[in-house]
Amino acid sequence: MDDKKRIQKVLYLLDAAYPDAPLTYLNHSNPFEMVIATLLSAHTTDACVNIITPILFEKYPTPQKMAEAPLDSLKEIICPCGTYNRKSAYIRDSARLLVENFDSEVPKTMEELVQLPGVSRKTANVVLSVAFGKNEGVVVDTHVLRVTQRLGFTKQRSNRNKVEKDLMNLLPQDLWYEYARLVGAHGRQTCDARNPKCPVCAVKDLCPSAMLETSMGRV
Predict the structure, then answer these.
(1) Rounded to an integer, what distance in angstroms lies between the CA atom of residue 151 and that of residue 209?
(2) Which of 132, 152, 172 is the last residue of a domain?
(3) Residues 6+ apart with CB under 8 A from 124
(4) Whole-prediction pTM value?
(5) Catalytic residue numbers, as ranges
(6) 157 and 81 co-located in one domain
(7) Which end of the chain is more exposed for a tag (fewer CB within 10 A), N or C?
(8) How many structural domains is the chain composed of?
(9) What is the b/e burial string over 51-75, where b = at least 16 CB atoms within 10 angstroms of the residue's CB?
(10) Is the separation of the CB atoms in 90 and 115 below 8 Å?
(11) What value, to the nearest 5°, has the Cα angle with vertex 56 and ends 52 and 60?
């Protein structure tokens, strides 16, 4: 079975396994909150972000208010999520750019979103897909990267943009969102970084890594 057929089969099986999986587990109520929450989620858990964002958005609910926020205040609020010095600067500077260049509105294109400090293609893809229902690429977060590598759909080890390109070449555009949603859920719930649950994996018969583990008697 070639990779284009195999990836379609993988999605079919994962859709049955995780029918209600969301693309993002970050709580938000508008595109601005989605941008800020996604920026904060780097190198930390979604659960941690969901604890601090209600406090953050209650105090600084709009781009204008966040753009005017003292850095020390932002650092104090987001400190539990780590790398708070960099993240506090990112979210304030992004808010300022939204106010100055985009009339306080979150832009709806990849080219404009990646102008915001700290916003990568991954972050922009999340915002476009979740907030605006637009498929301009495939979200390649930590979970999607790991599972994609284990499934053998890319030979890239760390370059997420190249992994995204590999996936875009394998999948029709209308499945880019579904791939990230389902594979992300699989990475969170089954294909763990340290202890993947291969015996109960819905796609173990299509996964080179699971087959290798089985052949070596590890599962």
Answers:
(1) 7
(2) 132
(3) 110, 113, 114, 136, 137
(4) 0.87
(5) 122, 141
(6) no
(7) N
(8) 2
(9) ebbeebbeebeebeebbebeeeebe
(10) no
(11) 170
Contact 179, 171 (CB under 8 A): yes
CA–CA dist 199, 95 (Å, integer): 46
Residue reference for tokens 């049955």: 16
Residue 87: which H helix or E strand, with range?
A: helix 84-102
The residue written with tokens 């659960």 in the block is 47
pLDDT tens-place values along the chain, 219 residues long: 899 999 999 999 999 999 999 888 899 999 999 999 999 998 898 999 999 999 999 999 999 999 999 999 999 999 998 889 999 999 999 999 999 999 999 999 999 999 999 999 999 999 999 999 999 999 999 999 999 999 999 999 889 999 999 999 999 999 999 999 999 999 999 999 999 999 999 999 999 988 776 555 555
The C-alpha atoms of residue 117 and residue 87 are separated, in whole angstroms, by 10
**Joined tokens for residue 116:** 């915001």
Structure-block tokens of residue 198: 């291969």
- For residues 200 and 196, what is the distance between their CA atoms, to the nearest angstrom? 9
